[in-house]
Amino acid sequence: MEFIDELLANNQTFAASLPAHHLDVHPIRKLAVVTCMDSRLDVFAALGLRDGEAHILRNAGGVITDDVIRSLAVSQRRLGTREVMLIHHTDCGMQTLSDDGFRAELQEATGVAPAFAIESFADVDADVRQSILRVRRSAFLPHRDVVRGFVYDVDTHRLKEIHVTAE
User: Fold this and answer.
1) The whole model's pTM is what?
2) CB distance 142 to 75 below 8 Å
3) pLDDT tens for residues 73-100?
4) Which of 81, 121, 130, 160 could pair covalently with 32 via S-S, beta carbons 3.0-4.6 A apart?
């Protein structure tokens, strides 16, 4: 049996244990969280969020890419979010590779250079600052006044806020 089959069985048990109910598509807290895809970060548990309270956007490194801006634009302009919380974390896999090295690896394996940016980084705090600025500077986002960035420590599970001193 594949692991996905086990997950499907888990879903059947989960769904059977809950009453059917419909949540509004608009997040109650008017919050969008952008974070890394790392499996050690349980965003709902770490922040005390419940279903229906926030949009959660995840990718490798929690990077603010064009696609994240696209999702935030939909989140804000059509679904009512007004605040953005960025969460990077310690011991991130994106710190273990280089843009040029990974790009070359992908090209060697496939024969095609990737069209997307790799967005690796060495300094997690600096990358959070860059991410904050990318959100604050995006003309596609009408709500850029409450954008805050954090680093989640995967060992202590605590958040450290990162501030941008100058724009």
Assistant:
1) 0.95
2) no
3) 999 999 999 999 999 999 999 999 999 9
4) 81
